[in-house]
């Protein structure tokens, strides 16, 4: 019988830390398994891209408004992890649990996976990328399009990777993405108001 965090090809996890297993990566699906493993860290690149977009933006007093956006994202993620995940079992117990293979099942509080925090964060960063390009760029919008392509790609890869390593279900990453996009669109209105106040 396979232990938590293991597949027939090998273990995806060691203890509480996600690590590639030599047996797993000797299979014919090495590239997909590696991509799935590293996909959980791509949100860092998304954050860097958003910061680069703000640096390149040419609207006056862009930093105070941008800091508000990033703060809202951090607050939203905190609410997602500390409140929504813990409240989920009160409504839909079966949907809230991570797949049996998830290494997070080794931790008492890690069994709850609804909504997916990684999907939430990358969706939020991709959505505010649209807002930053639209509101903070008066020139170089073509460069903004390149950044957006990166943000959208990372979002999709993250969704795939969370399912690939069996840390979340499709429903969990979908709900996380919807919530991230929703907060991102709401933040767009706040960004617009912030810019108008600065003028």
How are the SSEs placed, and which strands pair?
Blueprint: E1 6-7, E2 10-11, E3 13-14, E4 17-18, H1 30-38, H2 43-56, H3 62-87, H4 93-96, H5 117-136, H6 141-164, H7 170-198
Antiparallel strand pairs: 1-2, 3-4
Provide mean pLDDT, rounded: 77
Taking all Cα atoms into account, the compactness measure Rg is 19 Å
Beta fraction of the residues?
A: under 5%
Structural class: mainly alpha
Shape annotation: globular
Quick description:
63% of the residues lie in helices and 4% in strands. The chain is mainly alpha-helical.
Descriptive account of the structure:
The chain is mainly α and 199 residues long. It has one domain. It contains 7 helices and 4 strands, in the order ββββααααααα. β1 and β2 form a beta hairpin. It starts with 5 loop residues before the first strand and ends with a helix.
Distinctive features:
199 residues; disordered N terminus; mainly alpha; globular; 7 helices; 4% strand
């Amino acid at each position: 019988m396979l232990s938590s965090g293991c597949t027939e090809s090998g273990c995806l996890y060691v203890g509480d830390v996600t690590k590639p297993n030599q047996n797993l990566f000797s299979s014919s699906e090495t590239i997909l398994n590696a991509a799935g493993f590293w996909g959980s860290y791509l949100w860092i690149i998304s954050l860097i891209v958003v910061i680069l977009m703000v640096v390149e933006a040419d609207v006056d007093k862009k930093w105070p408004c941008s800091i508000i956006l990033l703060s809202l994202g951090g607050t939203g993620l905190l609410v997602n992890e500390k409140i929504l995940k813990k409240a989920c079992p009160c409504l839909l117990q079966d949907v809230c649990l991570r797949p049996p293979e998830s290494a997070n099942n080794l931790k008492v509080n890690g069994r709850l996976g609804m909504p997916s925090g990684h999907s939430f964060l990358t969706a939020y960063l991709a959505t505010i990328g649209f807002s930053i390009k639209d509101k903070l760029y008066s020139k170089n919008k073509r460069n903004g399009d390149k950044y957006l392509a990166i943000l959208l790609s990372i979002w999709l890869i993250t969704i795939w990777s969370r399912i690939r390593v069996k840390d979340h279900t499709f429903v969990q990453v979908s709900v996380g993405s919807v919530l991230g996009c929703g907060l991102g669109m709401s933040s767009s209105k706040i960004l617009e108001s912030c810019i108008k106040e600065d003028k």
